[in-house]
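Key idea: predict the complex, not the pieces.
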Amino acid sequence: MYFRSKVIFRLAATLAMLYLSLSSLAQRTQIRGFVDVLSTLQDGKVSFGFGEQDLFITSELNDRISFLGESVFKFTPTTPTEFSVSVERVIIKYNYIGNHNLLIGKHHTPLNYWNDTYHHGRVFFPTIDRPLLFAANIIPLHTVGVDLQGHDLGAVKFGYDFMVGNGLGSNEVSDNDKFKSVTAAIHIKPVDKLRLGLSYYYDVISKGADVHGKVINWQVDQQLLSGSIAYFGRKFEFLAESTLGFDHTDTTGTKQTSASYIYAGYKIHEKFIPYVRFDYLQYQDGEIYFTKNNTTSIVGGIRFQINYLAVVKLEYQHMKADIEGNVDKFTAQFAIGF
Amino acid sequence: MRTCQPFIRRFTGKSLLLGLLLSIGLIARSQDGTLTVIGNSKGVPSEMKMADLRSVFMAERQRWNDGTKVIIAMIKSTTPLGKVVSKRIYSMSGDEVRGFWAGISFAGKFESPVTFNTVSELESYVAQNPGTIAILDKPTESAEVKTILIDGKKTF
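Result:
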């Protein structure tokens, strides 16, 4: 009996070792990083600085399960060291059939093309910074939750995301209330290089929730409706996205916010792309969730692609906003991947 | 003799022009390169349409029909063959192809292809890994991988 147990134990140990060795053989891990350095000229003053340092890891655990992690080290003046580490994405992906996946973790909410495509790698951004609707917190950048995702289905290459998450006001490990955020996004790619997308987001932000450092004093029912057109062809680049926000409270009723941008670039050479971007943010009077700051901005610049992991951008921006007034700024950025 | 000279001159001129055009055609052909698609015996179909091949190499397909995971193996896009593949399959330069894959991988949509310096390494990897597909510049002599017909042809 003792002998048989010993044999079974050894067999199990051998199988476990074999399994582990096979697993480690199958695993493929890649680590990459992204960073950018900047110089700005504003109000007659030149400043130098650097942006987020982004650490990006992907790993294939087996032929169905993979991991993606993205952590950012960034300047945060409110911390004692003036730096903080932010976990931007932690996603475990399970490919359950064909082009259909289950993703669990912290995601960039798939509400629009930019947020679902460029993430934190400035080297991939067509302009130096994100469109202004990001800085204005119009769309929830992150969602911790579960996403059912499909892509490139059928002749029009249909794709979808259906995500349920903790929602605004919650943190990385728990929800602050019983409400869940819901994101439903669809897109098609009817012709090569063209992607058309639509999305809907719903969340209930509880009274007392802390969202982007601001305490919300009323319960807000939020709906966001977004549409996007993206075309990145051999010569011409075009990206237009628009989000309509509807914030409802019992006291103010429903207030509407619209946030849009249009980007266009033209490759005069494989490495040189002059571009323009126009941003527009408009808030309805009485809006209490977003910080009301009607803004228009025009950006003109040129992108020089040294190679696919080294890009220099020179940009001029003129912005007119309720809070900041008129802003004129020149920025040079050198973004790299490593 | 005097009457023949213009004819000979004209004939020689036409021959030269024809030869020049043929040479240009051949040079262009060799720059475009003849390509062959190979695959592991498991998962990868024996025949594909060109549009489907492009779709696979554009990261639009995660699984083959039998459920095997699609794995893309590529010769490095800095090599002469890699440049031809970049041009013929992606209509991009080698650097643009590397940028395309960096973007896809960064967005979490698809894992980057496994890349190799030599055709023999590439063939060996395809032979050992189910679901792997790759493109070569000549018909394969390896018995361990299969040649995939593209639009009914062994080369394109």
